[in-house]
Amino acid sequence: MSQNWKISRRTMLRGTGAAVALPMLDVMKQESVFGKEAAAPPLRMISLFMPNGVNPATWDVKGEGANYELSESLSPLSDLREHVSILSNLDNTGAGGHVGATSGFLSGIKMKNGVLGISMDQLIAKHIGDKTRFPSIVLGTEPPRQGSAGQGLPIAYANTVSWASPNSRISPEISPQVAFDRLFRTGENAVADARELQSVVDLVLADAKRLKTRASKDDGHKIEEYLSSVRSVEKQIAGTLNPPAREWIPPTTPELVRPPAGIPARRDVHVKMMMDLLILALQTDTTRVGTFMLAHGFSRCNFGFMGLKGDHHTISHHKNQNDWLSEYTAVTKYYVSQYAYLMQRLQQIDEGGSNLLDNSIVLFGSGLKDGNGHVRSDLPILLGGHGAGTLNPGRHIKFAPGTVLPDLHLSLITRFGVEIDSWADSSSTLANL
After folding, report:
1. pTM of the predicted model, to two decimals?
2. Which has the closest alpha carbon to 250: 393, 351, 336?
3. Residues contacting 30, CB < 8 A, separation 6+
4. What is the reported pLDDT for 37?
5. Which residues, in sequence order, are CB contacts of 83 under 8 Å at separation 6+?
6. How far apart are CA 245 and CA 279, in angstroms?
């Protein structure tokens, strides 16, 4: 269609005493709310992390390409086949165990002495985050934990998959109300609070920097991690006081309903609330990078609401016992169903001729294949969305054995215009996505 003839999306069909708004038509798609040609909808990066691996017997699919057979664990995706690809033979190059598998999920790096590397989501956020109020949002459902997980890695390193720098973790927000207020609270009160907080942050930064000059090397790492957290607060303040100019206006305006205070007692209710907040943040272009830890990397979450008896970590060490394997599969199906819910919701959000799922890359998976032996090869990875035309989903893609997860990271990072030649231990991109 010629672009020379356009009508406003506000055009009305008028008659005697009545006016009826037209539906969205192709001739309206390029007009912005300012009457100028609108930019194309932006590309989003969404990462969902599931801990503790899967039951391989009920995850692995039969067949390759578009004519594969969905497995039991992936059955919630039956109505979304054309929008998601199953990726096989990707190996985690991070450290072993649940902790290393978690920290390496978006970084691909094996942790050494508490030092890792910036994660994929945060590198993308650094590149495109200046276009939105928040460079990224990191959500979760379980509080941080302390203690030892064996293999010399503290459980604290499984608290998050997002790293702002080699020694700076980003703690997921687990409170629905706090996350909502952080994302959507605006107005005079928010600006006043931000200015007051800015003065506190300035003092903290000055004191921390002075302390770092006298600290030991180990303490220096801890202080730098703390400073990174403070800097993230600074960015949030800047987004409130000086929000970036809008280069793209979402064509839909969702209703914003503030969640109640506290953490919901039922896990499924909590997960859905956080997922809906993630969707709102993306739909309103509050951020274009969202990471959601469905559970802690060493999660012992109980699934009593599903009638299951064991906690997730325990049943992941199933010792090939049928009852535990059955529960293991049930938990995986639950998490896959949450991924399916996200994809369906994104697909329903109109973006002026396309939808939010069309314009997103939606990664889902775990850093372990089978928790029973801490297996880190052939990870359970799903890649959904159409990536603004850069992805060709709807297939089971089986890579050569030994292909590493950082190859996928690098392939996705470059889709956001980040110019890098290597990532973690990878200098190769995957051509068949």
Report:
1. 0.83
2. 351
3. 3, 6, 37, 38
4. 58
5. 343, 347, 357, 384, 385, 386, 393, 394
6. 21
Parse the chain into domains and list their residue ranges. Answer: 32-177+251-414
Q: Using 50, 70 and 90 to split pLDDT, how confident is the model at 5?
A: very low
Q: In terms of Cα–Cα distance, which of 370, 369, 349 is closest to 360?
A: 349
Residue 268 phi/psi, 5-degree rounding, is -65, -35
* Per-residue CA distances from 416 to 194, 289, 361 (Å): 30, 11, 10
Q: Which DSSP symbol is given to 107?
A: T
Burial 117-154 (b: 16+ CB within 10 A, else e): bbbbbbbbbebbbebbbbbbbbbbbbeebeeebeeebe
Closest CA to 276 of 349, 176, 196: 176
How many CB atoms lie under 10 A from the CB of residue 410? 23
Residue 178 tokens read as 């706090």
Q: How far apart are CA 202 and CA 137, in angstroms?
A: 23
Report which residue type is found at 109.
I
Whole-angstrom Cα distance, residue 47 to residue 296? 14
Convert the pLDDT of each residue in 175-190 to its tens digit: 999 899 888 876 555 5
**50 to each of 132, 365, 382, how far by Cα in Å?**
27, 6, 11
Tell me the fold of 32-177+251-414.
Alkaline Phosphatase, subunit A (3.40.720)
Pairwise CA distance, residues 200 & 174, whole Å: 24
CB 224 within 8 A of CB 168: yes
Residues sharing a CB contact under 8 Å with residue 225, sequence separation 6 or more, in sequence order: 167, 168, 169
Both tokens assigned to 144: 């941080």
Q: How far apart are CA 316 and CA 54, in angstroms?
A: 7
* Pairing state between β 12-15 and 381-384: unpaired
Buried b (16+ CB within 10 A) or exposed e, 303-326: beeeebebbbbbbbbbeeeeebbe
How many angstroms separate the CA atoms of 278 and 54, rounded?
25
**Secondary structure (3-state) at 158:** helix
pLDDT tens string 326-346: 999 999 999 999 999 999 999
